[in-house]
Amino acid sequence: MGVGLVFTLPGLVLAAAALQSFLALTNPRLRVMVSSAEVPLGASFDLAWAVSDAGRLRSLRVWLEGSESADAFNNEPPGGGHGSHATFATFPISEADRPGERGSARVSVPASTMHSFEASADANNKILWSIRFAGKSALLWGFWPATDVAYGITVLPVPVIPLSAEPSSVYVPGGALKGAVERIDGMLSISIAPAPGPDRDDGGPDPTGEFEVRLGWRTRGKGNTDQDVVATVKTGRDFWFRLPADGPYSFSGKLVSLVWAVEAERGSWPRKETVRQEFILSPTGREIELYR
After folding, report:
1. CATH number of 28-156, picked from 2.60.40.640, 4.10.375.10, 2.60.40.2310, 1.10.10.10
2. Residue 65 CA to chain centroid, in angstroms?
3. In angstroms, rounded to a whole number, what is the distance separating the alpha carbons of residues 64 and 128?
4. Radius of gyration over every alpha carbon of the chain, rounded to an integer in angstroms
5. How many CB atoms lie under 10 A from the CB of residue 27?
6. Cα dihedral sign for 242, 247, 251, 253?
7. Phi, psi of 219 (to 5 degrees)
8. What pTM was estimated for this model as a whole?
9. CA gap 172, 150 in Å, rounded
């Protein structure tokens, strides 16, 4: 009696995937060197790389990549899963057929894009930058898995506010924040007038109570919200905040946006009064659009 082997299509697919995973372990290794892993917007850095067994590569492409990431644990983003990732910028660095064992380049980070952003170690929303290496194998007619390596870097914001700038101010009459603040050169100063009316026994807010005024930012988009209160002050009328010179910038992407605001609140329910004014914080006075 003969003995035969029967292979099913799913089994062949799994076997091929397992073989490719094994072959990937033997891919050429990349060693990456940078003059600095933290680079301000608009600045440049030196990049060098070394490839072991470079003769096994048919081509090697190198580029600088910016991406946004959003994690949603309570509301799944479209497409399923608990996270989304999108690339908003790619800047070519090098592309070569039959690359040599070593390469180098001077890399410039555009000044008009968004800096790295990660509110905390467990933040839901992030702006990430990396140097990407993609190499196509010269072996087995392309069946051999490609080399794909990412080296993370941190892109730093440039100061938003000149140190010599004079304070700018916006007057807010009647407790309602009116008028968008598009550019702030130093300090934000806002006055909140007491609510009108001599008699406030109708359940309305107490005009003599103190406001708690907060300066902060929050994210919007497909991920769970990240937020931070930068400063808080209690006052009956006038206040000012020194704005952070290093952001984070106001920006808008497909997955994540970041919005700055001043919020003022007094009283408690049902005698509670709240006002809010969003504004833009960036070197240009305009929101950073990731995909423009």
Report:
1. 2.60.40.640
2. 12
3. 11
4. 27
5. 20
6. negative
7. -95, 155
8. 0.76
9. 49
pLDDT digits (tens, 9 = 90+) for 170-227: 444 444 444 444 444 344 455 555 555 554 455 555 555 688 889 999 999 988 999 9
Instruction: Identify residue 12 by its one-letter amino acid code.
Output: L
268-278 tens-digit pLDDT: 777 778 888 88
- Going by their DSSP bridges, the two strands 117-118 and 125-137 should be labelled as antiparallel
Equal CATH topology for 28-156 and 168-289 = yes
Query: Residue 51 is which amino acid?
Result: V
Alpha helix (H) residue ranges in the chain: 9-24
Q: Are 266 and 208 in contact (CB under 8 A)?
A: no
Give CA–CA dist 15/206, Å, rounded.
Answer: 73
pLDDT of residue 240: 78
User: What percent of the chain lies above the pLDDT cut of 70?
Assistant: 66
CB 291 within 8 A of CB 253: yes
Cα 24–chain centre separation: 31
- Would you state the pLDDT for residue 16? 47
CATH class of this structure's domain 168-289: mainly beta
Answer for the pair 50, 101: CB distance below 8 angstroms, yes or no.
yes
C-alpha–C-alpha distance, residues 236 and 191, integer Å: 9
Q: Which residue has the tokens 């952003």?
A: 117
Beta bridge partners of 102: 50
Q: Place 141 in a pLDDT band, splitting at 50, 70 and 90.
A: low
Cα–Cα dist 41/107, whole Å: 12
Domain ranges of the chain: 28-156, 168-289
